[in-house]
């Protein structure tokens, strides 16, 4: 058990709905510090099953046989499934979260999409953590309530990241988790500026389809004027917005008393019109393939 025996910190980050080609196109100097971008395959097509798999030991699996940290087939896994010599951390609890709680680590989460809202009685994901901060839309908020000013009024975890980082550093060793909804529909961050009318219309149209998972009609307005490509660009800008906030966080971690293992991945990808689909929850390659980075800071 290399990591826990060494008393190392762990930071696990999910960038919700972020596609592989979004990560390729975005300028991400902070994420690049962790190591090369790896294309991996997720076990879940939407937030709940994907995170349940990750916390249970099934992180996205690299598609081209790359090893985590250059050496390990898995970063963490339950001992009944792990081949211990090729797994970085082996745990004997139901989840990697509980493993760190029982091992005495300060364990806390911060999120983003409504599956992480502790105010919802059925939310099982935040309930895995002794403490969870939520900064995001309330479940059931209308997906078509889009206007030009959405980028500046959307509640986002990046606003809380500085305080969250201070809390982690005051309580080493820690297991910290962050779910960023910035890259999730409606893909808006303050970095996007004010939305133009075509983009507002496109997001409203996607919002009307996103949870019905029905194919777009040939007469959909989304096929006009590169609207879906422009929405995809919003996700690229959202990832760059997240990366700009991760830069100071990683710099702060470089001054921590202990080394920190940092794992960043998307929980699933997103369809932007391929096979006439938008959103996620489908089994297309754009949803099943996800970007992943893993590396150490201050080790
Ligand atoms: Zn998700």
UniProtKB/TrEMBL annotation:
Pfam families: Sulfatase. InterPro entries: Alkaline_phosphatase_core_sf, Sulfatase_N. Residues 163-292 form the Sulfatase N-terminal domain. It comes from the Bacteria. This is Membrane-anchored protein YejM (Alkaline phosphatase superfamily). It comes from Streptomyces eurocidicus. The lineage of its organism: Bacteria, Bacillati, Actinomycetota, Actinomycetes, Kitasatosporales.
């Amino acid at each position: 058990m290399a990591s826990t025996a060494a008393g190392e910190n762990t930071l696990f980050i999910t960038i919700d709905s972020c596609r592989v080609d979004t990560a390729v196109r975005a300028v991400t100097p902070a994420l690049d510090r962790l190591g090369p971008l790896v294309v991996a395959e997720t076990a879940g097509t939407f937030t709940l099953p994907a995170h349940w798999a990750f916390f249970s030991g099934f992180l996205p699996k690299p598609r081209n046989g790359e090893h985590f940290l250059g050496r390990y087939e898995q970063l963490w896994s339950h001992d009944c499934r792990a081949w211990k010599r090729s797994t970085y951390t082996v745990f004997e609890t139901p989840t990697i979260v509980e493993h760190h709680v029982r091992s005495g680590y300060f364990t806390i989460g911060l999120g983003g999409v409504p599956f992480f809202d502790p105010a919802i009685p059925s939310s099982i994901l935040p309930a895995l953590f002794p403490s969870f901060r939520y900064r995001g839309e309330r479940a059931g908020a209308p997906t078509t309530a889009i206007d030009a000013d959405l980028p500046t009024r959307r509640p986002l975890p990046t606003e809380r990241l500085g305080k969250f980082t201070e809390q982690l550093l005051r309580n080493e060793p820690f297991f910290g988790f962050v779910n960023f909804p910035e890259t999730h529909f409606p893909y808006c961050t303050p970095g996007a500026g004010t939305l133009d009318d075509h983009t507002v219309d496109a997001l409203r149209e996607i919002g009307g389809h996103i949870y019905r998972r029905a194919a777009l009609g040939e007469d959909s307005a989304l096929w006009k004027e590169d609207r879906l490509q422009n929405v995809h660009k919003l996700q690229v800008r959202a990832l760059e917005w997240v990366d700009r906030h991760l830069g100071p966080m990683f710099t702060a971690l470089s001054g921590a008393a202990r080394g920190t293992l940092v794992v960043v991945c998307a929980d699933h990808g997103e369809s932007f019109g391929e096979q006439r689909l938008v959103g996620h929850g489908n089994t297309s390659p754009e949803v099943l393939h996800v970007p992943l980075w893993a590396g150490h800071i201050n080790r």
